[in-house]
Design a protein that fits this description.
Blueprint (H helix, E strand, L loop, with lengths): L7 H58 L4 H30 L9 H5 L2 H65 L1 H20 L5 E2 H16 L7 E7 L5 E2 L5 H10 L9 E9 L2 E9 L11 H15 L4 E5 L4 E9 L1
Parallel strand pairs: 2-4
Antiparallel strand pairs: 1-3, 4-5, 5-7, 6-7
Helix pairs in contact: 1-2, 1-4, 2-4, 4-5, 5-6
Organism: Mucilaginibacter mallensis
GO cellular component, one term: membrane
GO molecular function: phosphorelay sensor kinase activity
């Protein structure tokens, strides 16, 4: 913990505390010891208190105690308190002799050691002082986090305005188009569902498999528009409707099909997809013909690489992922635990 790391409010609080300590010591001594002696005693003792407190919480505590070097912490604290006490006693005696013209007495070590016990109490107070500083620092950080959270929630609400505005516009367009071209209206509806999935579902940790499948089917229907002669897609689905999986986990394979596995000039593009739940696992498999123009490229691109990293974070080594490019078929296989 360094002084430079303190928040402005914490520094101001410390200044007020030390000002109060100075005034308290000074005015408690003034009636008995007079002005000059009270000033000397106040300055010397307050300075020694500050050295003990900040020496402990800024140096000894983080260097030794927080690093679990407890024996060294005890030794250094003991030596530190002795040295501080001796210096405080020596400074007091010298200043009294100089400013108050007190007759000089021999300064012996035993007399100086008499100032050490007073530093022990200050050392204990330094621990309390450190806890107080940590508390107020944490309190300020908590307030800032809450403020940032409120700001983030406000920004989220702002960001949701535009997508929902677009949803409403798409719905209006859908009803107008449906009167003259029901097929095109259906495509608009699928596009609206895809956008709603990205806004409402994709940020979640898990989504129902049925919603994920609906998203994939909407995506495939929109992709078919770009294929001149269409494509025949067989999609087998056998799973529990209540099953939940991480969002966008299966999409990489489907994207690769339309990016690298569809020949727009071919009259027959055959794609087979299956999503089957069996024996505590969910198995997803895609199969399509290779397109000669891209057969030499790496069909998976960065999508499979990123998917593999995500699967490792989610399932460790408990998943199976394989890509088979033998012959004319390109087959992708994924098996994840439930």
């Amino acid at each position: 913990m360094e002084i430079s790391r303190y928040r402005p409010g914490i520094i101001q609080l410390q200044v007020l505390i030390w000002a109060a300590v100075l005034l308290l010591i000074f005015f408690s001594l003034l009636p008995m010891d007079g002005l000059l002696k009270s000033v000397i005693y106040t300055i010397v003792n307050t300075a020694s208190y500050a050295i003990i407190i900040y020496g402990n919480i800024l140096v000894l505590y983080p260097v030794f105690y927080q690093k679990r070097r407890f024996v060294w912490y005890g030794i250094t604290v003991t030596l530190f308190l002795i040295a501080t006490g001796v210096l405080r006693g020596y400074a007091s005696i010298i200043l009294y002799q100089h400013f108050l013209l007190i007759k000089a007495n021999p300064v012996n070590l035993l007399a100086l050691l008499g100032y050490v016990p007073g530093g022990v109490l200050i050392y204990i107070l330094s621990l309390v002082f450190r806890i107080a500083i940590a508390y107020f620092t944490l309190k300020q950080q908590t307030e800032e986090i809450l403020l940032q959270k409120s700001q983030a929630e406000l920004n989220l609400l702002k960001s949701q305005v535009q997508p929902h505005f677009l949803f409403n516009v798409l719905n209006n367009i859908y009803y107008r188009v449906y009167k003259v071209d029901p097929l095109s209206a259906g495509l608009i509806e699928r596009l609206s569902d895809i956008m709603r999935y990205f806004v409402d579902e994709s940020p979640k940790e898990e989504v129902p498999v049925a919603i994920e499948v609906a998203f994939i089917e909407n995506y495939m229907e929109l992709e078919k528009i770009r294929i001149r002669h269409g494509a025949t897609i067989n999609f087998e689905k056998v799973y529990n409707p209540e099953l939940r999986i991480p969002p966008m986990l299966l999409m990489t394979f489907v994207e690769n099909i339309f990016k690298h596995g569809i020949d727009k000039s071919r009259r027959q593009n055959q794609v087979t997809i299956s999503l089957v739940q069996q024996d505590g696992y969910l198995v997803f498999k895609t199969s399509n013909r290779k397109v000669l123009s891209v057969a030499t490229n790496q069909p998976s691109g960065f999508g499979i690489v990123n998917l593999t990293k995500r699967l490792r974070m989610l399932y460790g080594s408990k998943f199976e992922l394989s890509i088979d490019q033998d012959g004319e078929l390109y087959t992708a296989f994924l098996k994840i635990p439930l």
